[in-house]
Give the backbone structure.
Amino acid sequence: MAGPTTPERPRGRGRSTMKDVAALAGVGIKTVSRVINGEPNVSAVKRQAVWAAVAETGFRRNDSAAQLRSGHTSSIGLVLEDAADPFSSALTRSIQDIAHQHGTVLFSASSAEDPDKERDLVLALCARRVDGLIVVPASGSHTYLLPEIEAGMVCVFVDRPPGDIEADTVLVDNVGGARTGVGHLVRHGHRRIAFIGDRLEIFTARERVRGYREALTEAGIDVDSRLVYNGPPYGEELRAWLRAMLGGADPATAVFCGNSRFTVETVREIRRSPVQPALVGFDDFELADMLTPAVTVVAQDPFGLGQAAAQLLFRRLAGDPTPVQHIHMRTRLIPRGSGEVGP
């Protein structure tokens, strides 16, 4: 007895369909549907024939219709500053792991600190009907999200709070971490401590410079505005400021860096300078422990930050009705040598 023949499929036709699988397996389309969806009451012989036909045709189930009926797409969106940044990479990986545990696909995009680009990306993800959003917000207004939230979109903001709406947030204790790092330098005898950080429009930069100022005030040290830099973490402006700060008549004896990008630039400039200040950086970075001296850091946990944000998002998606939550993650000081030298 001859078996079913393989149907001829025109070149360039596109994806295989259930009809192709049914013809190749010699069964009805309803039988193919039952097998694909794991339903009972299909004989072992037919089930084996269907899966063999699926493998041969390369058929993939299209969930679009079911998603439209249920209102869920089993996908979430993530918008962050820069996917290539090590902090963002760890954050993305942890969120992706939690999403996978929930059978959900993660779509991510970078805003490059541009509020308009952030808005466009977020609304594009909403238009694609993701079930929820995790956002590392650029500065600016977030009222554009209110219609989406009122329509049922679940949003969690991570690393920074939204500008002007009330929403779930998962943040690092930026003030406390900076206060700890600067206090560490004070305890080693330093009184001229410089601060280098991002533009003050960025929430984390504002919080970390606040921690710096609080630590100095607690130690009875006046804040010298000439020792404070808030600007881009690259370029000649930063390098010139570092040279002036390290090579002036009254140089800083210690430097506290607001993030790892500034720490790396500071290490490069120190290598060229006759002045070797003590150094503490906010946020750890690759090979920090391999330098000479190894770099003392106030470490945050981007992986844990992403996990907490994703877990909160999925609790909300499951119907958690509790009031808006603001979670703060602790930092920890890791002394390695660069911050333990006296003036």
Observations:
- The first helix runs from residue 18 to 25.
- The chain has twelve helices and twelve strands.
